[in-house]
Write a structure and sequence with these properties.
By secondary structure, this protein is mainly alpha-helical. Helices cover 45% and strands 5% of the residues. It has a two-stranded antiparallel ribbon with strand order 1-3. Strands 2-6 form a two-stranded antiparallel ribbon. The longest helix has 26 residues. The two termini are 24 Å apart.
Length: 453
């Protein structure tokens, strides 16, 4: 019997949304209409917290999505020795249409989108003092989910024509009842990016500067910088990154390792350079980077010499690599309850440096100054002059194994082995795009499959 994925999407999101409500007089979740569930400011606030929970799910910002992309984009820098068949397929670039990891990431993404849509649909009941903040947070969360999904399940912005290339379905209202109208086709890549940017621009305008560990004005600007960079809109990427840096609310940790603190397995807060991080506690689950990259957990992913030789001798980033059982591990995520460091200040310096360099501009400071700031933090001498490749290799090493490798390969139009001497798959290879999950195609005849599947 065919399952209707949209029905499951709504039910999953709705259960997550109402499960935090401690009132005893609630109707069973499967029979509550959204209009009854979200009647007050408090109801919407509970739903919003549920939206963060959904974005931080294992298959999304909880880390597994990033692990999948690191394996898919790898060429000889990682060694995979795990028993998860689905991740073995990612590593070997032989992903089938019925991969449960592919399906679960898609479902998790649209569940997060649906919870955000539920919040946005009820903004009218929110107190005036909270309305902008709640709306900004929901749009930030929706944009984040859409951005990750379009990068994984569609061709990159620079691969062909984004105005004609199939992206992913755009759903901007809650899925509450199943009709043929809910079975939407894939929007074009350009339309998906347009919605992401519109959400983030509005989020940046409406979010407060300070908002605890929830999304802030600077988090929206930082994600905008990342989105603009991916679509090669360097002027807007530069300006968004510069707004974050110029806010002076974040600082680079004095020692690179302090950006990835280890606290003996105990939870800890964000670091001074975290612009946005998914919170992990003993109650909320684990950081899936830790699951696969750490020798303290499964330790299925180790680091090869092809990556290690990329570092200069004095580079303190090497301190985070360690040997265990004859293999080399990356120590960025050894703490099982370490937050997933989603957006760090270092990335903003590197975006501004690259964008300024490509445009021949000096917004904020020179590309040389930004690059040297990153180098000096890891005990490397300042350079007197730089090339674009100097910036790109610095980005690769600074952000190594944080989920950037695949998307950077695609936007740069280089092979997967570009930084290690060549070889590997071309940036435009269909094998670097995940298939639309088989079960989605079964229930929605309006969807089309990606090339090569």
């Amino acid at each position: 019997m065919k399952k209707n994925i949209y029905k499951l999407l709504f039910f999953t999101a709705f259960v997550a949304m109402v499960s935090c409500n401690k009132r005893l007089d609630v109707t069973p979740a499967q029979s509550i209409d959204q209009a009854d569930a979200l009647k007050t400011n408090s109801d919407v606030q509970v739903a919003l917290v549920g939206s963060y929970t959904q974005l931080g799910a294992t298959y999304l910002y909880g880390g597994r999505m990033f692990v999948m992309s690191e394996l898919l984009g790898d060429y000889n820098e990682l060694i995979w020795s795990g028993t998860f068949q689905q991740l073995t397929q990612m590593y070997n670039k032989t992903v089938p249409v019925n991969s449960s990891f592919v399906a679960n990431t898609w479902l998790a993404g649209y569940t997060a989108i649906n919870t955000a849509n539920n919040v946005l649909s009820a903004i009218s009941v929110v107190d005036a003092a909270n309305k902008n903040k709640f709306e900004g947070e929901a749009k930030f969360l929706r944009a984040a989910a859409y951005f990750e999904l379009v990068k994984l399940y569609a061709k990159d912005w620079s691969n062909g024509d984004p105005n004609t290339n199939a992206g992913i379905p755009l759903v901007l209202t809650p899925t509450r009842a199943i009709t043929e109208a809910d079975k939407v086709a894939r929007a074009k890549v350009a339309a998906v990016y347009g919605q992401i940017i519109a959400d983030l621009v509005d989020a940046e305008a409406k979010l407060p500067v300070s908002n605890g560990f929830f999304a802030t004005k600077n988090a929206a600007a930082a994600l905008l910088a990342r989105v603009y960079l991916q679509k090669r809109d360097y002027a807007n990427a530069r300006d968004a990154a510069n707004r974050v840096i110029s806010s002076n609310r974040y600082s680079l940790a004095g020692y690179y390792g302090d950006a990835f603190p280890y606290n003996g397995g105990n939870p800890f807060g964000n670091t001074i350079e975290d612009i946005f991080a998914m919170q992990v506690t003993t109650n909320s689950g684990v950081n899936d980077f830790q699951t696969f990259f750490s020798a303290d957990s499964r330790g299925d992913i180790t680091i090869s010499d092809d990556h290690l030789i990329l570092y200069e001798a004095a580079d303190e980033r090497q301190d985070l690599f360690y040997s265990s059982g004859g293999s080399v591990y990356n120590g960025k995520n050894d703490n099982v309850y370490g937050n997933v460091h989603t957006i760090r200040l270092a990335e903003m310096y590197l975006i501004r440096a690259e964008a300024n360099f490509r445009l021949g501009t000096v917004v904020g400071t020179t590309p040389l100054n930004d690059l040297n700031r990153i180098r000096n933090r890891v005990a490397l001498a300042s350079k007197g002059s730089i090339t674009l490749d100097d910036i790109l290799i610095e980005r690769k090493l600074e952000l190594a194994f944080e989920g950037f490798n695949l998307s950077d390969i695609k936007r740069l139009g280089v092979s997967t082995g570009y930084f290690t001497g060549g070889g590997g798959l071309a940036a435009t290879s269909p094998k670097l795009v995940l298939p639309i999950p088989e079960r989605e195609l079964r229930v929605n005849p309006n969807l089309t499959q990606n090339e090569g599947y």
